[in-house]
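Model: Ready when you are.
Researcher: Fold this.
Model:
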Amino acid sequence: MASVALILGLLPALVIGLLAVPLSVAFSIRRLRETRGVIRFRWLFGIVRFRVRIPRAGATAARPAPEGEVRAPGRKQRKSRQRWRPGGVLSLMRERAIRRRVVGFLRDLLRATHARRLFLRLRIGLGDPADTGRLWALVGPVAGLARNVSGATLRIEPEFIDPVFEVESHGQFRLVPLRLIALTAAFALSPTMLRAWWRLSRGHS
């Protein structure tokens, strides 16, 4: 019993110690008509190394319905699609408190990840000028923050007419997972964001 208690007592310390070891991430992603890319991870001072390809090997697309057959979406999918409309999320960005909290979180995230040789070319539009304008109210300040990253190159273009999402990006990050978890938890559980999550869950904008 004593040994079990000792192990259970040491386990949290071991997990925290592992999460405090820096993680290096190098990525290259390109999306035009389809998304292609690779993400390389290096952890525990190079002992653990692996890569993730996008799309993942062995991933298969959904089987198309036979000609003449119409598949009804599942109840869960319909509910999710109705609740998490982009317009509902973007309407929250009109509120200064929420917008400042999101921008502040992204600023802290950029500082914590120690980006190097970051390149981003993004062309984005939601098909509705009003929604795209709300999105740009958030993307604009974030782009300004990212330009302060040493060696970063950013080209972000809004598209107000047609729905489009094109991205080309590559770079490197060096982060401490424990710090990233702490920043994310503080952001998600802040009073401002808890109110936003509650409003979204209620389907209110």
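Researcher: Now this one.
Model:
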Amino acid sequence: MMAPANDVAAARGSASGERRLEAIGLCLLPGALLAVVVLAAWPGYLSWDSAYQFWQARHGRFGDIAPPLLPLLWRGLLQAGLPGPVGPLLLAWLLYAIGFATFAATALRRGQRRLAWTIAIAGPLCPTVLILLPHIWTDVLLAGSALSAAALIADDRRGPLRTLAIAVLLCAVAALRHNGILAAAPLLFGALWLRLPRRGAGARRSAMMLWTAALVGIVGMYSVALLLRDALVEQRVDTWAVTPLYDLQAVSIATGTQRIPASLVGAGLDVDELVAAFHPHSATWLFARTSSGVVDPTSAPLSREQRDDLRAAWRESWATAAYWAHRTRLFVALLGPQHGDLRGLAESPRITPFADNPPIEGGWPGAHARYRALLSGLHRVGLYSGGAIWLLGSLIAAARVRRRERRHRQVVWMLLGSAACYAIPYFWIAPSAELRYLLWPALAGWIALLLVLGASRAERNAPPS
């Protein structure tokens, strides 16, 4: 008489074991897929910016061209015994692996098995991630931190450790780049929004508390970023000034009148020099190719007079059609597939020497050659375009998300809001058409697209389990 009961118990135990194995495999798969990219490009790529941050990490002297969080973390990883760029590369890999795995595990726990496998397999295959993951850039760590934060926010389980992890990740997003707060703020708002009651007498009061908590949180995140800079940076520079100078160069060329203030240029600078030093998609030539010279605001801070002169001249340029034509051209190039001379702005697959940095050897040349061949194929078919992934993913997700259950919709809108708030201001602030600026918007659009298209018909409107 007991045999049937034993059989049922055994069947349940077997099913439970299979589900556990499936969950483990699901969580390990994104990390395994990303590990292929990491190992193929081992030990990572160092552009000039990255090599300078490596120097800062080695010497404990922090600059302000980019916020000091990456070289600070890098210094700790070096002291922990991880040589060269290995530490930041593994940290980026871990952030992306955790983010994709958490999204997939949440879907599986909610009974959305097909969606879970879709995210676990297709998530790490986002073309922009495949291209940029091996680069030791703040943009790569920012996108990984934002991905992991968004995944933890989307998970409906709560606890002090999860809350602490979300807070740390959002502070990292805000502190990794000067404009990182634009990506972090919508994620914080989404985290609070998901806790609001759907309806009832307390809904309005909860909404007021949401806005108050969001404002306090945004101020807090930005304060952390400023405190890090004030505590670590030896000399603040005026990185923001690169874009106004570049805009004034473009407007000067278009109007035939030199518009950069005299306090920021050498004697005799004219439009012909600006033409010779002009790159249509990058500001870097302006500071290196003029014979009379232009003050580089990333090497030393501007004086108060120089700042005032630059702001006044920049504001005046907004009234010209040339300014808007220049910003539109640059933003379209940023959104585009980085063909032709833009290829060098899409990635920097090299290890750049800098000062006394030790030489770094590549890992596996054969695997690296195959990886580069894959990226060349993606480039030929136009899949380099972070802008296309962001815009198409956002449009499709926004059109289809209304058919999903409430929490699912909120997560998608949180991702799309963070992507838009981070990407759109680049129309005004981007100093060049570098693909890395759109890594997080492209990744957020990609995940939102998978969330609305990856579920089966039965899973799409299923209530939370």
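Researcher: Key takeaway?
Model: The chain has a mean pLDDT of 89.
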